[in-house]
């Protein structure tokens, strides 16, 4: 498949448990984003990777949330000690990326995956 | 920080009519404005986008206009069809160097009645 894929599609867990959500970006895309979408709302930014490094993690709500992208491709969003308020759809997006400080025609377009619906009971 | 306001929250039109959704943004440094369509249970799908050096862009039945001075942009769908029914999101992007993120509006639920 040529698009962004996310697994699992649905995750039900109990309060206090640990969860991992996986994102496979479009092949060759160097930029990867995580967003969270609550019911009836637009997606909210969590974290942005350029390659292996987190270039912007200003959207992570607290230290229970962490994300990695060790090889610059697949990314995992990790949530510790889940709370009921963490229930949402977690979306991943990727974009081609580009040279620092330069705007390129195709670098900004973000392509989204189908999301993982997380339910914390 | 950047804030994006989107109106209306719901929009109902007859098949064949036009639909217009409007957004305003607060950060004058924003330079890229995509529109996404989201169907139930799916991720947002890019339908059209515009950059700050362009005032208007059209793709078949869909067009987007941008007014940088007023900091607002609009989505226009002509000859609407039932399959256009979905939630539409506008977004603003401030990309600079190694940072940048999409700030989304609240969404517009479009219903096209056959």
In short:
The complex is a heterodimer of chains A (121) and B (114). Chain A contains no helices and eleven strands. Chain A is an all-beta fold.
Can you describe this structure?
With 121 residues, chain A is mainly beta. Chain A is 0% helix and 45% strand. Chain A has no helices and eleven strands. Chain A has strands at residues 5-7, 10-13, 19-24, 31-37, 44-50, 53-56, 65-68, 75-79, 88-95, 111-112, 116-120. Chain B has 114 residues and is mostly beta strands. Chain B contains no helices and eleven strands. At the A-B interface, strand 5 and strand 10 of A face strand 4, strand 5, strand 9 and strand 10 of B.
Helices and strands of chain B: which structural class? Answer: mainly beta
Oligomer: heterodimer
Secondary structure tally: strands of chain B: 11
**Percent of residues in beta strands of chain B:** over 45%
Shape of chain B: globular
Helix content of chain A: under 10%
Q: Which segments of chain A are poorly predicted (pLDDT under 50) over 5 or more consecutive residues?
A: 99-105
Amino- and carboxy-terminal Cα gap of chain B: 41 Å
Largest interface: pair, residues per side? A-B, 28 and 29 residues
The biggest beta sheet of chain A, please?
7 strands, mixed
What are the secondary-structure elements of chain B, in order, as H or E? EEEEEEEEEEE
Tell the overall outline of chain A.
Answer: globular
Gyration radius over CA of chain A = 14 Å
Distance between the termini of chain A: 33 Å
């Amino acid at each position: 498949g040529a698009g962004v894929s996310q697994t699992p599609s649905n995750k039900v867990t109990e309060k206090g448990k640990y969860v991992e959500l996986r994102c496979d970006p479009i092949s060759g895309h160097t930029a990867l984003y995580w967003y969270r979408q609550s019911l009836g709302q637009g997606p909210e930014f969590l974290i942005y990777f350029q390659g292996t490094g987190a270039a912007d993690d200003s959207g992570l709500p607290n230290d229970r949330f962490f994300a990695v992208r060790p090889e610059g491709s697949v990314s995992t969003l990790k949530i510790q000690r889940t709370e009921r308020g963490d229930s949402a759809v977690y979306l991943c997006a990727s974009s081609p990326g580009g040279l620092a400080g330069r705007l390129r025609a195709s670098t900004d377009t973000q392509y989204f995956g189908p999301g993982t619906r997380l339910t914390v009971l | 920080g950047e804030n994006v306001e989107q109106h209306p929250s719901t929009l109902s039109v007859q098949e064949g009519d036009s639909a217009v959704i409007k957004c305003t943004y607060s950060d004058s440094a924003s330079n890229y404005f995509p529109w996404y369509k989201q169907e139930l249970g799916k991720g947002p799908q890019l339908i059209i986008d515009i950059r700050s050096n362009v005032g208007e862009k059209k793709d078949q039945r869909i067009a987007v206009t941008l007014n940088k001075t007023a900091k607002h942009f609009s989505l226009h769908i002509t000859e609407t069809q039932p399959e256009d029914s979905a939630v539409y999101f506008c977004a603003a992007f401030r990309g600079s160097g190694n940072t940048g993120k999409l700030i989304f509006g609240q969404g517009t639920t479009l219903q096209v009645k056959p």
